[in-house]
């Protein structure tokens, strides 16, 4: 099978039952994609496939044949930060960080479709991603900061 | 002098790695030629094992090894306080998480398939799932009876321990009361849902005899010691390198994969990896203790509490873990932050065949806070008194005595937390239920206390080592585990503050049993106090050494120097020397710029007969939440609209971090109040996944505001106290008290799910006298 991940094309032979998350992590060593439940219940393994977010634990690798995937490693060019990443740092939207890659990709996907979401739309946009540390407030605020097109700096 | 870093909003030092996906968690490590492990768990919660046949699994292509207890008779039991847990079960299972066999295979999939080829012959024993039944003398023993620990008339195989609390004269106290309020309050099994599943990678180096592993833990050195003793290794033969940690909340206080990966790395001679599934870890790893509180409280007409009696029964499940400490903390905190002149209590920690329970955020004090804040609200209702006023009237002040007999001499902000929370919320005393857009609204309050640090005379210390590198950076070596709460950032802020150096010149070495020294566990809300103080002491000593070395090299007196921004400046001149250069000179002269700080405060062991001591904890954190809820009369659904939190933290070190803890604690408490419960029936978990064990999502998030209270005189650095656990404590009872305020229905058990609330409201409307349970 062939797929494009973060702009780079990969051809791999995989077993039919291999999940996309295993291909990304075990084969391509893109370990920024995390597994939280393996059942599509927590959103931790979210990646963007052809512009839509998917739980990479629920997608079989062969289903990604010919598709284009964006993982956390591809959100910004190497050495640079995406405005969402910047905002997550500044707003304190990161604690343990395990949900962070998935939530960033959900947020990115949301903003692509709706550059100026309301607070409720932001909440809906990340409703499939569990965060156990932050209580979500700072995550929602960080996404708001980016959608409003301004960056606030620490006091 | 104004602080540059302490008390500010500072970005987390590990945030960049976490937002870019570069931070490596346990499962992100891959070693060459690695084999994958899977563990066969118990087929029945309580069964005598007659035989385990692994021969077919061994013969399966791709299987490297399959072992049972018979293959490793030399392996010893493990456990944090009592060594009562077997690595591989020998004779009987005591809960569904017991390990029966371990398979190592070339792939995870082969290992999983091989488990299905293992045949277990067993004889079921009676399953004891109810702690009250377990305590009865004639109930089947789960563990070998230990008469010395037992109380007359109770079960010597199932009672792990009991604790007592006694002060004053109960007869007098109740005689002074105008009202006596009596309730039984229960909390359920809860799961941490740390988002990162337990996992680990290990390798064994035959030549050095050292087993190195990458597996998250809240306490590197304690897990190291337990792995070593279980496998007959010297402590230094076990090296644990701390990966990034995907949440903990107490879950990673216990051994999970650690002993198994070390054992299998040694036996197979190959690197090994074990990743637990969500379902497996929910069934296998520790839970929050379900606790039963039986309260009797005497109170005068004016709201003054005169006496408080408590019986506390905690279900620790199949193994002790930290259960004895959790349950007695629930007893020791059982009256909350309120003056109680006469009190008496007893707690029992009881084995059952349920999943074992251990540490979870609040460590017994969370369960107690739900219980005493429900009780306080009942008292307010009985007296017709405003709930905030009742709490204010009884709240601690300087000179108050805790249930353990400790006289509070510093940092008692409980009254201020009530005042600030009420003010920020716009609290109206005597507010009753109101209807808005066809939904019922109510407001509830809850306060809490929490003793920081292990306390009770348990040795408790943290060591931090600092050095100036040749590049002029400050390298900090601390084993303090950052589970997401932010201790590494706090430590860097403190070091930067003392040395007046930019934050990006402070660097944390990774936690490693072999290169960082014991910092104690990330638990008991202790790291800001303990590792913060250790870092501060080390930085102060290092600053002294910098002044000393500069005065030798430049032949000037100390007061003429200023250390700032990574340089030593001879004041009033152009002369300056960089810290890097000074470090090189110092090293060449055999006196490197290194310093250590060790914080090891004294606490007292309470008298076992009465639970009384002089200095039981180094500091107490207080907190008050006020919550507003909205209830749908037709579905029973509760939405939390708004929560104001006023934590008394002594001193804010990082405001963003404090808000993050407070907001996260609030939402975890929302889950506890409204949706979370691990349902264990006859020892078997029936909701071991995240579509049946619900936790709050972004859609459940209320509006939140945090208004810190700062007395500035607590035992931590710059007068700080801890906040990790206390952030959660008042959240659930504030919400259930708000539900009472909205509906008049009191819930003595959580969670208050829509179906329970709806049927309680229907029963109330039909005038059926008793309610919600």
Layout: helices, strands, pairs:
The complex is a heterodimer of chains A (155) and B (773).
Chain A: E1 2-5, E2 8-11, H1 20-27, E3 46-49, E4 52-55, E5 68-70, H2 83-91, H3 100-113, H4 119-125, H5 137-147
Parallel strand pairs in A: 1-5
Antiparallel strand pairs in A: 1-2, 3-4, 3-5
Helix pairs in contact in A: 2-5
Chain B: H1 15-19, E1 35-41, E2 47-53, H2 55-59, E3 63-67, E4 92-93, E5 99-105, H3 108-115, E6 119-124, H4 131-135, E7 159-167, H5 170-175, E8 179-186, E9 199-205, E10 210-214, H6 220-230, E11 238-241, H7 258-268, E12 272-275, H8 278-284, E13 287-288, E14 291-299, E15 305-317, H9 323-332, E16 342-351, E17 357-358, H10 365-383, H11 387-394, H12 414-425, E18 434-436, E19 439-452, E20 462-468, E21 474-477, H13 487-499, E22 506-508, H14 527-554, E23 561-564, E24 567-570, E25 576-578, H15 579-588, E26 594-599, E27 619-631, E28 638-648, H16 655-674, E29 680-681, E30 684-685, E31 703-706, H17 731-743, H18 754-765
Parallel strand pairs in B: 1-12, 10-11, 13-17, 15-16, 21-22, 28-31
Antiparallel strand pairs in B: 1-5, 2-4, 2-6, 3-5, 7-16, 8-14, 9-10, 9-12, 14-15, 18-19, 19-27, 20-21, 20-26, 23-24, 24-25, 27-28, 29-30
General description of the model:
The complex is a heterodimer of chains A (155) and B (773). In chain A, a hairpin with a 2-residue loop joins strand 1 (2-5) and strand 2. Chain A has helices at 20-27, 83-91, 100-113, 119-125, 137-147; strands spanning 2-5, 8-11, 46-49, 52-55, 68-70. Chain A has five helices and five strands, in the order E-E-H-E-E-E-H-H-H-H. The longest helix of chain A has 14 residues, at 100-113. Chain A starts with a strand and ends in an 8-residue tail after the last helix. The model of chain A is unreliable at 150-155 (pLDDT under 50). Chain A folds into two domains: 2-74, Ubiquitin-like (UB roll) (Roll); 83-147, [2Fe-2S]-binding domain (DNA polymerase, domain 1). With 155 residues, chain A is an alpha+beta fold. By secondary structure, chain B is an alpha+beta fold. Chain B has four domains: 15-22 and 457-599, 2-Layer Sandwich (Aldehyde Oxidoreductase, domain 4); 31-125, Aldehyde oxidase/xanthine dehydrogenase, a/b hammerhead (Aldehyde Oxidoreductase, domain 3); 127-186 and 288-397, Aldehyde Oxidoreductase, domain 4, CATH 3.30.365; 414-439 and 620-773, Aldehyde Oxidoreductase, domain 4. In chain B, the strands form eight sheets. A seven-stranded mixed sheet of chain B has the order 3-5-1-12-9-10-11, sandwiched between helices. A five-stranded mixed sheet of chain B has the order 7-16-15-14-8. Chain B has a five-stranded mixed sheet with strand order 18-19-27-28-31, sandwiched between helices. The radius of gyration of chain B is 27 Å and the shape is globular. Chain B starts with 14 loop residues before the first helix and ends in an 8-residue tail after the last helix. In chain B, helix 9 packs parallel to helix 10 and helix 16 packs across helix 17. Chains A and B meet through helix 2, helix 3, helix 4 and helix 5 of A and helix 1 and helix 16 of B.
């Amino acid at each position: 099978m062939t797929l494009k991940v973060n702009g780079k094309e990969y051809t791999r032979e995989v077993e039919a039952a291999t999940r996309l998350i295993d291909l990304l992590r075990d084969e391509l060593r893109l370990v920024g994609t995390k597994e939280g439940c393996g059942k599509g219940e927590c959103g931790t393994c979210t990646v963007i496939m052809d512009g839509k977010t998917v739980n990479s634990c629920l997608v079989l690798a062969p289903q990604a044949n010919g598709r284009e995937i964006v993982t956390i490693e591809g959100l910004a060019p190497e050495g640079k930060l995406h405005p969402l990443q910047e905002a997550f740092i500044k707003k304190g939207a990161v604690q343990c960080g395990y949900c962070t890659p998935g939530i960033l990709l959900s947020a990115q996907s949301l903003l692509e479709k709706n550059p100026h979401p309301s607070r409720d739309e932001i909440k809906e946009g990340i409703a499939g991603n569990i965060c156990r540390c932050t209580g979500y407030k700072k995550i929602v605020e960080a996404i708001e900061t980016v959608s409003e097109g301004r960056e606030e700096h620490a006091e | 002098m104004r602080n540059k870093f302490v008390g500010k909003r500072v970005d987390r030092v590990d945030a960049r790695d976490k937002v870019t996906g570069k931070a490596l968690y346990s499962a992100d490590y891959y070693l060459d030629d690695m084999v994958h492990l899977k563990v066969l768990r118990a087929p029945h919660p309580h069964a005598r094992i007659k035989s385990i046949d692994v021969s077919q699994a061994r013969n399966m292509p791709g299987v490297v090894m399959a072992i049972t207890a018979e293959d490793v008779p030399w392996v010893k039991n493990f456990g944090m306080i009592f060594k009562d847990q077997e690595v591989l079960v020998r004779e009987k299972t005591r809960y569904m998480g017991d390990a029966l066999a371990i398979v190592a295979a070339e792939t995870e999939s082969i290992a999983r398939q091989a488990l299905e080829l293992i045949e277990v012959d067993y004889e079921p024993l009676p399953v004891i799932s109810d702690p009250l039944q377990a305590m009865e003398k004639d109930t089947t023993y789960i563990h070998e009876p230990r008469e010395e620990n037992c109380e007359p008339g109770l079960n010597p195989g199932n009672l792990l321990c009991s604790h007592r609390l006694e002060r004053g004269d109960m007869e007098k106290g109740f005689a002074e009361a105008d009202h006596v309020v009596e309730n039984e309050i229960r909390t359920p099994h809860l799961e941490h849902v740390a988002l990162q599943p337990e996992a680990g990678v290990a390798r064994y180096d035959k030549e050095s005899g050292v087993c190195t592993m990458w597996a998250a833990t809240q306490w590197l050195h304690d897990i190291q010691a337990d792995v070593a003793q279980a496998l007959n290794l010297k402590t230094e033969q076990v090296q644990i390198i701390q990966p990034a940690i995907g949440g903990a909340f107490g879950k990673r206080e216990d051994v999970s994969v650690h002993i198994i990966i070390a054992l299998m790395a040694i036996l197979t001679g190959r690197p090994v990896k074990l990743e637990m599934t969500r379902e497996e870890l929910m069934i296998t790893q520790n839970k929050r203790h379900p606790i039963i509180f039986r309260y009797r409280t005497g109170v005068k007409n004016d709201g003054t509490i005169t006496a408080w009696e408590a019986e506390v029964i905690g279900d620790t499940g199949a193994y002790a873990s930290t259960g004895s400490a959790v349950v007695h903390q629930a007893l020791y905190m059982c009256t909350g932050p309120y003056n109680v002149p006469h009190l008496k209590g007893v707690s029992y920690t009881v084995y059952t065949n349920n999943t074992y329970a251990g540490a979870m955020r609040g460590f017994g004090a969370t369960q107690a806070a739900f219980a005493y804040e429900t009780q306080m609200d009942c008292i307010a209702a009985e007296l017709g008194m405003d709930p905030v006023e009742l709490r204010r009237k009884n709240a601690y002040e300087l000179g108050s005595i805790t249930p353990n007999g400790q006289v509070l001499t510093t940092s008692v902000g409980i009254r201020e937390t009530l005042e600030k929370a009420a003010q920020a919320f716009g609290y109206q005393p005597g507010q009753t239920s109101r209807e808005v857009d066809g939904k019922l609204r109510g407001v509830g309050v809850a306060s809490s206390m929490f003793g920081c640090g292990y306390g009770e005379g348990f040795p408790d210390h943290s060591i931090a080592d600092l050095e100036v590198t040749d590049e002029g950076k400050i390298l900090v070596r601390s084993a303090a585990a950052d589970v997401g709460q932010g201790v590494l950032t706090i430590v860097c802020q403190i070091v930067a503050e003392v040395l007046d150096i930019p934050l990006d010149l402070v660097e944390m070495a990774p936690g490693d049993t072999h290169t960082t020294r014991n910092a104690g566990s990330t638990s008991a809300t202790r790291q800001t106090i303990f590792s913060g103080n250790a870092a501060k002491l080390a930085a102060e000593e290092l600053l002294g050494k910098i002044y000393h070395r500069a005065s030798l090299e430049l032949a000037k007196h100390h007061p003429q120097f200023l250390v700032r921004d990574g340089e030593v400046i001879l004041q009033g001149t152009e002369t300056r020397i960089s810290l890097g250069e000074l470090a090189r000179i110092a090293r060449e002269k055999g006196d490197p710029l290194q310093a250590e700080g060790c914080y090891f405060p004294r606490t007292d062991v309470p008298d076992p007969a009465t639970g009384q001591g002089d200095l039981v904890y180094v500091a107490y954190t207080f907190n008050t939440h006020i919550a507003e809820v909205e209830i749908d009369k037709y579905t029973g659904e509760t939405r939390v609209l708004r929560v104001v939190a006023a934590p008394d933290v002594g001193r804010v070190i990082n405001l963003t971090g404090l808000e993050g803890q407070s907001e996260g604690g609030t939402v975890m408490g929302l889950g506890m109040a409204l949706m979370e419960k691990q349902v264990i029936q006859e020892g078997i978990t029936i909701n071991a996944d995240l579509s049946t064990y619900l936790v709050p999502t972004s859609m459940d998030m209320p509006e939140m505001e945090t208004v810190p209270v700062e007395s500035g005189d607590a035992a931590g650095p710059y007068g700080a106290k801890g906040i990790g656990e206390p952030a959660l404590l008042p959240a659930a009872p504030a919400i259930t008290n708000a539900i009472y305020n909205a509906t008049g229905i009191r819930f003595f058990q959580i969670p208050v799910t829509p179906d329970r609330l709806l049927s309680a409201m229907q029963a109330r409307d039909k005038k059926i006298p008793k309610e919600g349970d």
